[in-house]
Every structure is written in C-alpha cells, then in structure tokens.
Amino acid sequence: MFIRYNSKFSIFNYIVISILLCSSCNKDEEGIKYDYSHFIPSHFPIPISNPDSIPTEAQFTLGKKLFFDPILSRDGSLSCASCHKPSLAFADTVSVSAGVEGRLGNRNSPSLGNVVYQKKLLKEGGLPTLEMQVLVPIQEHAEFDNNIVEISDKLMTIPKYVEMSQAAYKRDPDPYVITRAISAFERTLFSGDSKYDQFLNGRTKLTAIEEQGLNLFMSNKTNCNSCHAGLLLTNQNIENNGLYSVYKDIGAMRLTQNPSDEGKFKIPSLRNIALTYPYMHDGSLKTLKEVIEHYNSGGSDHKNKNTLIKPLNLSQSEIEALVAFLSTLTDYNFIKNKNYQNE
Ligand code: HEC
Ligand code: HEC
C-alpha cells in the first residue's frame, strides 16, 4: 500500500488531519476507562499512551464493529479484517492482498498483534499514530478506495452506529470517531501467550531442537537478535536486510528521497511468524526455511545492506533448529480469543 503524497494527499487530507489533531475536539470525551489491563500479558510493559488513547469499553466495541464492517470500502466488498484476519494473527496468507475490484497493492499485510507498541507505522515507518494510519486503507486505490467523509455520512444514517458513537464519544460517527474507535480496538490486540512466553514465564520447557534454535537466534553466529530484539523480537529500526540488489519498492527512500535509505524497511516483529507467511515487505519468501536460507546465503550485494547480514555457514540441522524456535512464537490463545472475533 502506498500513500500517494502528490495525488490524493490534497486539501481533503489537510481538513481530515486537522480534525484528527484538533485537541479541543475531544474535550467532552469521557466514559469509564475500558479496563483492558487484564489483556496485557503480565511480562509485557504497560503501553505508553496519552489518556485519550486508552480505550473505554464503548470505544472498543464500536472500533471492533467498524474493523469488521465492509461498509468502509467503496463497493462494500471488504473490511479491515479481509487483509488482517484474526485467525492469522491479523495478517493475510497471500503475498499482496486484493483491495476493491481485486486491485493488488505492492506490499504484504502485516500482523496487527501488539501494534500498540509500534513506534512508527507502515513498512518505511512513515506514520506516527494509529489514528492517522486508518486513513491510508480508506483512501488507498488498491484497498477501500473510499473517502472518510462519505463513510461518515453513511454511518450517520444507521441508528445503531449513531447510538454506539454517542455512547463512546458523545458525538455522531464523524471522521474523528471513525479514526479514534478503530485505533482503540487495535490498541487491545495483545499477543503474549506463545510457547516462548510460557517458557519465559517458567510455565513450560522447550524441546532440545527449539532450545538449540533459541541459542542460535541469540548468538553472534547469526546476529538475529541484534535486529529482532526484545519481547517483540524487533528493535523497530529501519534496515536493509539484503533481500535484493535492485529494489522495485525502494522502502524508506520513498519518504526521505535519500539513496542511503533505499531498500530499508521496518524490522518486523517475529511474534506469530509461523502464521504470517509469506514473508518480507513484498511477501516474496514463502516459508520460514526460505527466510533462514536467505540469511544463511548472506543476501545481496546492495550498498545499503546492514553489515550484520553476511554468510552464516549454518548446517541443515541448524536451519531446522531456527525454524523450530520461530515456531514457538505462535500464540494460539491470541488467534482464538473471543474478544477479537467478529460476532
Ligand atoms: C487490501 C488489504 C488491506 C486492507 C483492506 C487493510 N489493510 Fe492494513 N495493511 C495492509 C498492508 C499491505 C499494509 C502494509 C502497508 C505498508 O507498510 O505500506 C498494512 C498496514 C497496516 C498497519 C501498519 C502496521 C505496522 O506495524 O506498521 C495498520 C495499523 C493497519 N494496516 C491497519 C488497518 C486497518 C485499521 C484497516 C481498516 C481500516 C486496514 N488496515 C485495512 C493491507 C490492508
Ligand atoms: C540487520 C538487521 C537484521 C538481522 C540481523 C536479521 N533480520 Fe530479519 N528482518 C530484518 C528486516 C529489515 C526485515 C524486513 C525486510 C523486508 O520487509 O523486506 C526482516 C524480516 C525477517 C523475517 C520476515 C518477517 C515478516 O513478517 O515478513 C523473518 C522471519 C526474519 N527477518 C528472521 C530473521 C532471522 C531468523 C535472523 C537471523 C538469522 C534475522 N532475521 C536477522 C532485519 C534483520
């Protein structure tokens, strides 16, 4: 998905963005704060948010309804959940998901698990808030190809939406409410109960091969953990991992126009990675084994390739061990969690 800065990013966007940023707009927003603290895995930090972005129950419920509602797309054919499927940790199984009329974008749909912790959104890290991100799929030609003002006009004619919107934000379902409510739902998508988490919490043991994979992942031999670090298995930096010598999608250079950013993408979280195939920004690698083989080969000769990406000389059994470790990152309780299913 590409934000077209020069085409649709027009006066319309300025109006919408000023609505989003208008601090006085939310002065009468209140309600019982939705206690989603019990959603937060005990070994995860409390997310840093401003008080406005801690969802209340009414906001969560409205946001969830909107997330699953195809009313957001121009022809009513798809919702956010068409590309961010709960059963796949809110990702998709195709390289690039189809938008309205089957139009294909350029990028693979990422998982929205733990998205509340992402400091920068999209693959080049160009957007700072979830509220702003909601506008991207809404107007993107190869996604909803729609207009938030028209969506809002439609929602205003549906009594249920007006009622839920009033309950959540004390205002009608305008662009402010649409962007806030969807983000409120997204901020509750915690995933931290994989086998790896149970191992970290002393509740289970890893098998010998999984443990071998964990040790390799953390070692100087592979350096995986230098980039895929911490609880989310990403340090959230923007890097070139040597996927190509020539990039069709130039990544962060789209934002900066600086050739030293060509082919750089946000380092993805590896949580639920076994469910979120295919891999990389364009979904070009189909299996985890192919990903490890990419790293084992040392990648391309691109001038921006990070120096940690170099031939690793891993044996077949070491490759299998890394795949076994990555498979412990699947959180089956997350994908089955009733709070996140469409009713
Ligand atoms: C047609 C498929 C499609 C639809 C529909 C769609 N998305 Fe996405 N989403 C994507 C793709 C592809 C990306 C990666 C785009 C990029 O980085 O440029 C993405 C990225 C995101 C991100 C950024 C995640 C991160 O870690 O950087 C968020 C958040 C998100 N989508 C939420 C939504 C919401 C909310 C909706 C509905 C309003 C939605 N998406 C609808 C395909 C889709
Ligand atoms: C220099 C930093 C860096 C190192 C070291 C690194 N990666 Fe990555 N990794 C990235 C970046 C950047 C991407 C995303 C590239 C893209 O989107 O095209 C990525 C993508 C991935 C993906 C695909 C994620 C997805 O959702 O598509 C997997 C799996 C992965 N890396 C595993 C590993 C493993 C295993 C190792 C060690 C053998 C490793 N990485 C080492 C930076 C790194």
CATH class of the largest domain: Mainly Alpha
Radius of gyration: 21 Å
Give the domain tally.
Answer: 2
Low-confidence stretches: 1-32
Number of strands: 2
Overall helicity:
25-40%
Characterize this entry briefly.
It contains 14 helices and 2 strands; from the N terminus they run ααααααααααβαβααα. It is an all-alpha fold and 343 residues long. The two termini are 28 Å apart.
Which tags fit this structure?
single chain; 343 residues; mainly alpha; Cytochrome Bc1 Complex, Chain D, domain 2; two-stranded antiparallel ribbon; 14 helices; disordered N terminus; binds heme C
How would you portray this structure in words?
With 343 residues, this protein is mostly helical. The protein has 2 domains: 11-190, Cytochrome Bc1 Complex, Chain D, domain 2 (Orthogonal Bundle); 195-333, Cytochrome c-like domain (Cytochrome Bc1 Complex, Chain D, domain 2, Orthogonal Bundle), CATH 1.10.760. Helices cover 35% and strands 1% of the residues. It has 14 helices and 2 strands; from the N terminus they run ααααααααααβαβααα. The chain has a two-stranded antiparallel ribbon. Helix 2 runs antiparallel to helix 6 (159-169) and helix 12 packs across helix 13 (316-327). The longest helix has 12 residues, at 175-186. The protein is globular, with a radius of gyration of 21 Å. The two termini are 28 Å apart. Mean pLDDT is 90; it is low at 1-32. Residues 123, 222-224, 226-228, 239, 241, 243, 265, 267-268, 270, 273, 276, 279-281, 291-292, 295, 306, 308-309, 322 line the site of one heme C.
